[in-house]
Design brief:
The structure holds two protein chains of two kinds. Chain A is mainly β. Chain A has strands spanning 3-7, 10-13, 19-26, 32-38, 44-52, 55-58, 64-70, 73-78, 87-94, 106-107, 111-115. Chain A is built from no helices and eleven strands. Chain A starts with a strand and ends with a strand. The model of chain A has no long low-confidence stretch (mean pLDDT 91). Chain B is an all-beta fold. Chain B has strands at 3-6, 11-14, 19-21, 23-26, 32-38, 44-50, 56-59, 62-65, 75-77, 86-93, 99-101, 105-110. The relative contact order of chain B is 0.35. The chains are: A mainly beta, B mainly beta. Chain A binds chain B through residues 32, 42-44, 46, 49, 51, 90, 92, 94, 98, 101-110, and chain B through 31-32, 34, 36, 41-46, 49, 51, 89, 91, 93-95, 97-99, 101-104.
């Protein structure tokens, strides 16, 4: 069966510090990978998605970046955090390809980031 | 692109009350439709889905019917429990890589 894990679960960082959130998927090959952000009291905002190694699509301009160094690894980074980066970050995967991708997303447990 | 509009919250109910959360979508074709649920402090998990018109998705006592004529996918449960307190997201998927989410509706059920 497939599993997805992301870490750390909770992070408190000062403004201007760097960020690295990691997500890994097991039990499937060549998944589509996603990073979402959920700000307090707000809906889900798609930040990045990736359909393959080294292929990253950015949905919103910001000081965050994403990388996919391996097939089932997706990393969210920042060189200098802002207060507005605080939120709940969710990694997700879906099956690759139009024939098999029903649109269903499988989410990780989430990472809560507080920037002070 | 696709967009999803769902009922604003928060919604507060008593146990055993009837719950409805409205959801409508805008899409060029006939998207697959989903309801996701997020319990406090957790990630999202799929609650139910429907992939074509008139399909009814159901799970844990919740139901939603894909209505093409009204472009809607309203979520209903006949008798809610305290454990149903969560944030509910409606979502639509067409033929690209992205799922479009509604803003989420926070539901609180009181004992």
């Amino acid at each position: 069966s497939q599993t997805i894990h992301q870490w750390p679960a909770t992070l408190v960082q000062p403004v201007g510090s760097p960020l690295s959130l990691e997500c890994t998927v097991e039990g499937t090959s060549n998944p589509n990978l996603y990073w979402y952000r959920q700000a307090a009291g707000r809906g889900l905002q798609l930040l990045f998605y990736s359909v393959g190694i080294g292929q990253i699509s950015s949905e919103v301009p910001q000081n965050l970046s994403a990388s996919r160094p391996q097939d089932r690894q997706f990393i969210l980074s920042s060189k200098k955090l802002l207060l507005s980066d605080s939120g709940f970050y969710l990694c997700a995967w879906s099956r690759f390809g139009r024939a098999t991708n029903t649109g269903e997303l499988f989410f990780g447990e989430g990472s809560r980031l507080t920037v002070l | 692109g696709d967009s999803v509009t769902q009922m604003e919250g928060p919604v507060t109910l008593s146990e055993e009350a009837f719950l409805t959360i409205n959801c409508t979508y805008t899409a060029t074709g006939y998207p697959s439709l989903f309801w996701y649920v997020q319990y406090p402090g957790e990630g999202l998990q799929l609650l139910l889905k429907a992939t074509k018109a008139d399909d009814k998705g159901s799970n844990k006592g919740f139901e939603a019917t894909y209505r093409k004529e009204t472009t809607s996918f309203h979520l209903e449960k006949g008798s809610v429990q305290v454990s149903d307190s969560a944030v509910y997201f409606c979502a639509a998927f067409s033929n690209d890589y992205k799922l479009s989410f509604g803003a989420g509706t926070t539901v609180t059920v009181r004992a």
